[in-house]
Every structure is written in structure tokens, then in C-alpha cells.
Amino acid sequence: MAVPAAFLALFFAFPFAAILERGLVGGGPTFDVLTSESTLRILWFTFWQAGASTVLTLILGLPLAWVIARFEFPGRSVVRALVLVPFVLPTVVVASAFLALLPEGLERGVVAILAAHVFFNVAVVVRIVGSWWGRLDPRLWEAAATLGAGPAQRLRSVTLPLLRPPLAAASALVFLFSFTSFGVILILGGPRYATLETEIYTQAVRLFDLRAAAALSLLQLGSVAIVLAVAGAIERRFSVVVPVARERDVARPPRGWERAALLTVLLLSGIALALPLTALVERSLATPNGYGLAFYRMLGEETPALLVPPWHAVLNSLAFAAAATVLALLVGGSAAVAVARRRAGWLDALVMLPLGASAVMLGLGFVLAFDEPPLDLRASPWLVPVAQSLVAAPFVVRIVAPTLRSIDNRLREAAAVLGASPARVWREVDLPLALRAVGVAAGFAFAISLGEFGATVFIARSDWPTVPVAIFRFLGRPGAVNAGQAAALGVVLMALTAVTVLLADRVTTVRRGTL
Amino acid sequence: MLRAERVRVSFAGVPALADAALEVEEGERLAVVGPSGSGKSTLLRVVAGLVRADAGQVLLAGRDLADVPSHRREIGLMHQDGALFPHLDVAGNVAFALRLAGLSRVDRERRTAELLELVGLRGFERRSLDGLSGGERQRIGLARALARQPRVLLLDEPLGSLDRPLRERLVQDLAELFERLRLTVIHVTHDVGEAFAIGDRVAIMREGRIVQQGTPDDVWTRPADEWVAGFLGMTNVRQRNGRRVVVRPEAVRLLPGDDAVVVAVQRRGPAVHARVRLDDGEVLESVSAGLEQPQLGQRVRVEIDSGGIVEVHAAAPP
Question: pTM here?
Fold first, then answer.
């Protein structure tokens, strides 16, 4: 427990303190930054776009959650898995996909931002609301039907009230993700649209005003805290004990009009989810001389956009992600063990903090904290995996801790009674049973690190770019060739992420007959 | 009033109802009883419009209900554990149908109070569902189902999740209430005693079809076949003059004497259940209201009241 705590103290608490110091005291008062007209405008847009993204995601995600939760149809489990794909894609990939998809004039601006946020977060609604919806006791609708409620009345007076808790939870998450969204807004927002996150980056990296960036970070942190508090209050208010169906799965084949509705929802959702990614692939193949692999071949050549050939970025990303995964598993895994044994609630909270504090703040904190003696680490490329591991660690804890906690304690007791020492119990019982969760966590950590953009863009050295940073550099330059290379790198990153997630899913529980 | 004809339903190829048919007159109480898995609930759900039948029809006052959705059938249904809406309080549940019908607030409150009074829960309006007992939940479920005066009330094992003493008391309450309101009722249960207590007529169901219908007395005195007799608890099957007969246990009397031995004895409340083995090896069940309990191993003489001998057919193959 001491090692992860020390790691977090050095690489999270210290940079965070550096932001506090710079934002509150260092370099004079910062009140002027927070009350300036441009800050207020940015704050308003940040809330506004997060709210609009949440509402749109709910409207577009609920029909899909409904059909997946309530109906049995061929390929249902495949659909359920495919819906999650956008959620694990790197922000930079999604942003470049919408750049490729949307017609000129719309490709940067509010429409593009909202579309990308909906694309990302539909998975959240489908997962959270859908899993709840799928467990509701169908006899409640039957009761309502025999009491005279038609389909619309059942939706209004039974379904929606019962879905309030997951709706509140999913809305809170989507709002938070959209509120702290960085890559999408930096790329799709163009020069006109900025949120707190992108403004922190602009102030720090483009205008070199670290004082303003630190002050904005504190504003961001306060806003996130308020959002979380409001969300928590709403969720507590809506908590209902809902009768769960006795069957594990209450889905049934659709009947009558439901069949048409099911087909329509699946078809439209499928098109909406596939179109941006198809557009990205198309853009990467559409060379000025017709379709071909020219943009991919150019990834091996020198380019004015980067100091190194683009394929170096691929190698960098893989190496950084591997290192970050190891670090995240060590830090997050030991935190998960402590959390699961209920000995360290504070460690749980501490590991979760980087999630709320946002990646951009982490990047800024690294810049402020490790830029000068005694810790002048900025020259080291290895700050990148450290930052990525901090972003990934909360997910590791969230995946591993519940699994450890769910292990029936009687199994450990049985092993102990059979003569296993505590260390042996851990090795023979906990580890094998948690192995699948660890595998999934490793996959997630690797995928997150591959796609990490907010912190990496601050600290990656120009001669050690990662793929997301390289895509961002290409997109920052005009011309079809740069756009094409960005798309090609985006396709490569998408493929790497997909392979990672698929491999992680293949890790299965070890069931052996060990004598 | 309500008639179901040759109803056939199968789930994933497995037949649940095979030509099931039943009929209930206005103001009549029909109890459908059968072992679990015999299709009782499915039949009820077909009548309520919650399950679509593959074949057959359901007629309410002569009108075919095939294309009438549940919410327009004017048929009430009460589920096993009430299926109360967890997001509403007691009054919200009871008044659910009244709200859909567009009753004014004043009318809703008056009617809700009436209904709660009817089921013996006066003043429960503002209670939340948490902390209500199983019996109270069932009474609320009943009040909710009665709110809009359904033409037929269906009850699906309404007392199935309650413990025995409470169940026995509620059976009495239900029977009295149905009588008083002159309700048309189809009551589904797996408990023979409950069916006999509730039903003007009893329908016995086995593997997707109704095998016997009649008044409780009819069914008890003339079980249609050996299976029905066994289901009703009559296990004394013997051959007489080349025919199979069932001897009802209360017709088996144990007297002082010496042609059988008591192999099991059990007092259940006022009745004594005993099993005796005759010297020829045949085993008979006996139920008596005697104050004197025969002793295990005691030698007795067995006398059979000829009124308790029922001729039955061999059970039809399902």
C-alpha cells in the first residue's frame, strides 16, 4: 500500500499542489482571470454544450437501450458489444472521423462537437439504462395494462418513473464526460469554441500564461465538484427499490408493431455509429490520385508536421502504453486490493481523483511541477507513461476491486481450513478468480493509454510524439495531404485499440485440474 | 360471461396449453387448480391478453377478444406478489386506474378510501410500500385491481407467497368479499383446499388442459379419473370386481380388531391422518376426526364406508 501511495503523492499530489500554488498565490492575484468576460463566456459554453450533449445522447440512446433490453433478436449480443466500440475509441480518432464525415462548413463548430459527444456517450446510456431496464419485472407493465394503461401511458406512468435512477446516473456521467471533454473540442471547436479544458491548454501552451491556466484549472475543479454534488443529490432523491424480475433475462421476441420499431431503431443506430468511422477510413484512402494506400506509405517518410517520421509515433505509443499499463496495474491493482479489503477508503478516493481532476489538469500540473529543480523531469520522455498510468489507474481499480470484493469469503475460509497460509490463500483463490478482471483491466489501461491525449499533449516531447499527438499536429496544418495522413494514423490507432480490447476480452478464467 | 375455447399456446415449441377450455358465468367464482407447470397461469394470461394464443378464442359476453389489447379488455388481474408499483405510495397504486380513467382528484380520493376500506386497510393512503407485510401488499393489489370494476377479476396464485395461517385467513376474507360484491372471478391456485374454499365451481388442470370441472362436491365425490383422485389427495386405489375404485380417506374407519397394523400416524389439527397396512399387504390412508389417536404399530380392524367408494377411470394419458 505504501508504494502506490508514494507514487500518487509524487505524481499526483505534488503536481496538484503546484497548480494550487500557481493559481492561488504565485504570480499575483488571479481573480481578474476568473471574472473576465471571456472566461464567463467560456464557462457558459462549457455548461451549455455539456447539457445539450446530455439531452441529445439521452434522446438518441434510449430507443437503442429499449430494444436491446427488452427484445430477443438474432445477433443481440453482437449489437450489445458493438455499441460499446465508440466509447473505447480515442477522442482524437472520433474527432478526425467527424472532420472526415461532416460537410464543409459544419465540420468545425457546435454541430460537430455535439455529434461527436453523442457518438461517444450513447454507449453510456445503453449500458447503464439498458441493464436496469432489462431487469425490471415485466409484470409491472402487465399490471398496468390490465389496469387500462395503453402503451404510451405505460411508458409515461410506469417505465419512465422506474428508470429515473439509471437516467440520473447516465445523465450525470454523460454530462461529466462532455464537460471535461478535451480532444473533441480542441479539434472540432475551431478557433471560435472553447471550454474550460481547451482554454487551460490554450493559455498554457499557446499563450504561455501558466498563471491563468492554473486559475482556470481551479475553476474547472470547482465546477466538476458542483456537478458531482448535484448529480449525487439527484441520484439519492430518485433512488427506489425496484422489483427485479425473477428471470435473469426478460427479453422476448418482438410482436406486431414492435418488429418494425426494432428494425428501424437498429438500422438507424447502426448507420449513425458506422458512418463516421467509415468516413474516416474513406478519407485515409482517398488520395488525390484516386483510392490507394499512398497516405499509409507516407507514414514512413519525413514530414514537415513532425520532427520524426510518423511511424515513430506508432512505436512510441505502443512503448508508452505498455509501460503505462504496467504502472497502472501496479498502482491500481494494489489500491484495488486495499479497497476490496475495506481497509483504505481514502486510497480509493485518492486513486479516483485524477478522473475528476481531468487529464488536462494533470498535464498542466506536470508542466508546473517537474519543470525546475529539484525535479526537472521535463526532458524525460518517460513522464508520458507516468501521466497515462494515472489516467488509467482509476479504471483498473473500478474493474478489479468489485471482482475481488465479490469473491465469496467462505472460499478463502475453506482454503484456510484445508491448510493454506494467508499468502497461499491469496495465490490459490483470489488471484485465479480475479485473473479475468485483471486481464480486462490491463486491456482497458492499454487502450486508454494509447488514446490518451489531454495530458500527453502537454508533456510529450516534440521528438517523441504519440499517435494522438501526431494526428493533432497533422490536423493543425492545412491541405489534403495532412488531412489524409491524419486519417491514416487515425485508422491505425483505431485498429490498435480494437485489437487491444478484443485481446483483453479473450483472457478467460483459468479453470485447471491442478493436482 | 367469459368463455375460453380450445386455447392452444406453446413456448419455443413446448406446449403449455392444449385445447384448454373454461367458462364462467356472471357473478360466479371459478377456481382453477392444478400442479405447478400445468398451464394455469398461462391460461389466465391468455384471458388477460398478456399472452397471444396460437389457436382458440376468448369471448367476453359473446365478443371475441382476439384483437382487443389488455388495457381495453376490462379484465382485472392480481399477481402473485401484487406487482405493486414501487415508485408510488399505497394511494398511488390503488388510484392508478382511476387516474388513467381521468377521474377528478376528489373522486379519486373518495374511491381510493372506499377501496381501502373494502380490503380492510382504511387510512393506509399515504403509506409507502416499504414496511408493508405480504398480506397488506396483497390487499392493496386487490384494491388496485378492483378500482375500475373489471367485468372479470383474475387472480394468479394471489396467496401463494404468504405463510399458511395468513393464507387461511385471507381465503375466508376473499371468499366473503367476492360474495358480497357479486364479482365474476377466476382464481388460480395450486392448493386444493383454497380452490374448494373460493370456488363455486372448480376446474382441475393437468398438462395444459382442463380435466374436470364441477362444484367442489361433485369433484370431491366423483373425481373424473385416478389422476384427479390422486391430486385431490385420495391415494387409496383398489380393484373391486374387476373395476378400479378410489376409497376416500374419511371413509376408512379404524376400529378395535385384528386385520391391519398402523404404520404411520399424524395429527393435523382436528383430524388424525393414519396409514394402515392390511394383512394382504394393501396400504390404506385414513382420516378421522377422532379424539383418540391410534398408536403406531397397533393392530386394528378396518371398516370401509360404502358411500366413500368412488369408481374411477384409469387416468387418461396426458
Answer: 0.81
